Please model this.
Amino acid sequence: MSLAKYKLIHIIIFCIDAFICVCLLTSLGYFFHRNGYFPVHYFVAFLMYFILFVSFAISFFTFLRTHSYTSYIISLALSTARVLTYLIMLVTFMTYKTLPQEDRQFEEDPYRWIAYRKVLLIFLAAFVITICAAETVILLRHYSKQIRGRIQSQPITNDIEAN
Model:
């Protein structure tokens, strides 16, 4: 694929990730405003996903500006950490005790409503993991070529002779 296609796909994936973070933060705000009580494990998982996304964005934009190998590796590590955090969020939803008589309407408790729909959780997980996997593949294929090209274009110096 060409450079323009990789960049376009990565921009689309980045926008989807940003949308997911905005949705998580909006749902947190809505739940706090409406109910006041929020399960701690959801709060921690949502907050970690947001922190990892912001950290990834900062390290990736640093990489784009400086072409630093370190920021590239940090971007890959944070992208992987986001996938793991999303899997932890999925597990917290899947392990929620579901009793048939407690099924709620979406307007009453959206998180419990989602926890009762396991198929929806699996589809959401598949979608987000696909997005994160595509982002990782783009990072590995496209941007590693930039790093390799930059390293190969640098002159080889012998540090022993220079001193």
In short: The chain has a mean pLDDT of 76. Residues 118-153 form the longest helix (36 residues). DSSP finds six helices and no strands in the chain. The radius of gyration is 20 Å.
